[in-house]
Design a protein that fits this description.
By secondary structure, the protein is α+β, with helices and mostly antiparallel strands. The chain has 3 helices and 14 strands.
Length: about 230
């Protein structure tokens, strides 16, 4: 009888975790319904410096509703509609104040291998975080993408709209640009039950916050092991 009660309790906790995930998915689509908090923005450059080739710049955040204390991932994409070969050597992303980067990557074209994603270490730069290279090649079929994941501060209020800063790009003359208004916005919300539970597991080294595998296994593996442990005790 005691084992059955413990197993039921674990099953209930498991249901709450995955129910919490469902709530997160439901909330994502409605936070920006009034249209005042856009998760992405776009800019173009076509002047004498681009020699008739249009440069494009995009910035976005991964979700329009993000739990306080979780993570937000911003993506900066630099491209061109021409067949020329501008090179980008520095990209700076300006996140909202208080956001700390925890990981970053660049996806760019490499001769012989095509588009390839590599981990980079973002460096502080005038209130933003930059990555540098000897030069990333850009043409109409090969944009360069800088992706940065930040920890969302816990002092934000649920319902607060969080707008990032813009971007800065350096490289060949045509591609270089400063775009302070190329922003991305999301609405902060309280964590769901699932996020809190999975976040707690992650903080204790028991699995990743998004349910993927870690050095000790996935969340589903941990739950299964817990059930086996309690049923066998």
């Amino acid at each position: 009888m005691f084992r059955n009660r413990r197993a039921a309790a674990i099953a209930t906790s498991t249901a709450m975790v995955f129910a919490g995930m469902g709530v997160a998915a439901l909330e994502t689509g409605v936070a920006s319904a009034d249209g005042t908090c856009a998760i992405s923005s776009h800019a173009e450059k076509s002047d004498i410096s681009t020699l008739g080739i249009k440069m494009t710049y995009d910035k976005s955040v991964n979700l329009d509703s993000i739990g306080v204390g979780t993570t937000a991932t911003y993506k900066v994409v630099i491209g061109t509609t021409g067949i020329g070969n501008p090179y980008v050597n520095t990209i700076t992303d300006y996140p909202p104040a208080g956001f700390t980067p925890i990981s970053a990557s660049v996806t760019a074209y490499h001769l012989g291998t095509g588009q390839r994603t590599e981990t980079v270490t973002p460096e502080p730069n005038a209130g933003g975080f930059k990555t540098t290279s000897t030069g990333w090649f850009v043409n109409s079929g090969n944009p360069v993408t800088y992706t940065v994941t930040y920890r969302v501060p816990t002092n934000l209020s649920a319902g607060q709209q969080i707008t990032s800063g813009g971007i800065g790009v350096a490289g060949t003359v045509g591609v270089s640009n400063e775009l302070p208004n190329l922003t991305a916005c999301f609405t902060a919300r309280a964590n769901t039950v699932g996020e809190s539970a999975l976040g707690s597991l992650n903080n204790n080294g028991l699995g990743s916050a998004d349910g993927q595998t870690s050095s000790t296994g996935s969340v589903s593996d941990i739950i299964a092991d817990a059930i086996k442990k309690y049923m066998g005790s």
